[in-house]
């Protein structure tokens, strides 16, 4: 009998890739999404289209009315978007907390065998991510297993919402005997990521051969990038080992600037534009990168930063050329 997985918010970037990966592994997949930001399955890129049951609607209503048993539940439903979205509408964070609360109440009753709550690197203290003195962020810097929870000031309302969600995860795991994995992805990226995110947005400017290529903020701010295929495989491959609540960084352990993204993208498009910055636009913390020693005990990323950016550029270039032919 096929194993069954529920993916809430499954029509977004990560959900599409979870569906593809789990279909290849033979899972029976149910995706619930209200399409407020997600992409209807009929519009998914061809390489991600796989058969599954799609339920359009509010995740909370689905969980209330459907009592199907699942071997795995992946909770992705949340307010998502680039930094401009998150900074511009901080009240949206309250909606994410509502979704998390509903999900964990359902999980406490129905008890899926394994649960993935997608946390974030935004939960880490911002004072450790400045221009000077930034450190590799370790899981122990936000620790809900300690006698007294350890945490600091996270990054924006989004960071607070994910911090609160992970606290709920640890609490429900302890009190209801749930197995909950909380991956803390750093900058996940891939070909079909929405253009509201900086990495595909910068690559798209290069594909359009813009000159100059404009980067929000200083362009010197750094992030730790992990390609989406590695991110998904790292999560799913860890689940057989999961007992109780567990958190883990997902990244490369290396910091790259957004300016470097632009340089690489232009290189793959075979031109040399001027790269300028746009002061005053949101840029977030100055430096963010992970300590990935825990992840590397069970998984090592396969796609390098350079390879990943090249894949994004090639995908966007192909899409751009196809659209141009249609026009």
Brief digest:
By secondary structure, the protein is of the alpha/beta class. It has helices at 13-24, 59-65, 83-88, 92-110, 156-176, 198-207, 228-238, 258-268, 305-326; strands at 4-8, 28-33, 53-56, 72-75, 114-117, 180-185, 187-189, 213-216, 222-223, 225-227, 245-250, 256-257, 275-278. It has a seven-stranded parallel beta sheet with strand order 3-2-1-4-5-6-11, sandwiched between helices. Strands 7-10 form a two-stranded parallel ribbon.
Give a verbal description of the structure.
Residues 5-251 form the NAD-dependent epimerase/dehydratase domain. This is NAD-dependent epimerase/dehydratase domain-containing protein. This protein is an alpha/beta fold and 327 residues long. Helices cover 36% and strands 16% of the residues. It has nine helices and 13 strands. The protein has a seven-stranded parallel beta sheet with strand order 3-2-1-4-5-6-11, sandwiched between helices. A two-stranded parallel sheet has the order 7-10. A two-stranded parallel sheet has the order 8-13.
CATH domain topology of the largest domain: Rossmann fold
CATH architecture of the largest domain: 3-Layer(aba) Sandwich
Give me the count of strands. Answer: 13
- Strand arrangement across the biggest beta sheet: 3-2-1-4-5-6-11
Helix and strand element order: EHEEHEHHEHEEHEEEHEEHEH
Shape: globular
Whole-number total of structural domains: 2
Describe the largest sheet. 7 strands, parallel
Low-confidence stretches: none
Q: Please write the CATH class name of the largest domain.
A: Alpha Beta
Give the helix/strand class: alpha/beta
Tell me the CATH superfamily of the largest domain: NAD(P)-binding Rossmann-like Domain
The Cα radius of gyration reads: 19 Å
Total helices: the number is 9
- Beta-strand portion reads 15-25%
Helix content: 25-40%
Q: Give the termini distance in whole angstroms.
A: 47 Å
Q: Quick check: average pLDDT?
A: 94
């Amino acid at each position: 009998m096929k194993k069954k997985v529920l993916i809430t918010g499954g029509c977004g970037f990560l959900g599409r890739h979870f569906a593809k990966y789990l279909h290849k592994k033979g899972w029976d997949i149910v995706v619930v999404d209200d399409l407020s930001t997600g992409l209807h399955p009929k519009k998914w890129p061809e390489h991600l289209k796989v058969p599954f049951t799609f339920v359009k609607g509010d995740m909370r209503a689905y969980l209330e009315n459907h009592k199907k048993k699942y071997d795995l539940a992946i909770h992705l439903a949340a307010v998502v978007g680039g930094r401009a979205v998150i900074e511009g509408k901080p009240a949206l964070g309250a909606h994410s907390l509502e979704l998390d609360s509903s999900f964990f109440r359902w999980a406490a009753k129905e008890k899926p065998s394994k649960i993935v709550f997608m946390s974030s690197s935004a939960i880490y203290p911002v004072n450790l991510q400045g221009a000077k003195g930034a450190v590799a962020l370790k899981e122990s810097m936000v620790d809900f297993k300690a006698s007294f929870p350890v945490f600091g000031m996270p990054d924006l309302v989004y960071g607070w919402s994910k911090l609160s969600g992970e606290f709920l995860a640890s609490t429900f795991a302890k009190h209801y005997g749930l197995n909950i994995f909380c991956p803390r992805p750093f900058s996940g990226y891939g070909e079909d990521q929405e253009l509201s995110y900086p990495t595909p947005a910068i690559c798209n400017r290069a594909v359009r051969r813009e000159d100059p290529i404009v980067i929000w903020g200083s362009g010197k701010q750094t992030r730790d990038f992990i390609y989406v295929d590695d991110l998904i495989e790292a999560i799913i491959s860890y689940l057989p080992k999961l007992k109780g609540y567990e958190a883990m960084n997902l990244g490369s352990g290396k910091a790259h600037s957004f300016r470097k993204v632009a340089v690489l993208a232009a290189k793959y498009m075979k031109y040399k534009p001027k790269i300028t910055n746009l002061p005053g636009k949101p840029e977030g913390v100055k430096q963010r990168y992970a300590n990935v020693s825990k992840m590397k005990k069970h998984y090592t990323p396969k796609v390098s930063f350079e390879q990943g950016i090249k894949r994004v550029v090639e995908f966007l270039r192909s899409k751009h050329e196809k659209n141009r032919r249609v026009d």
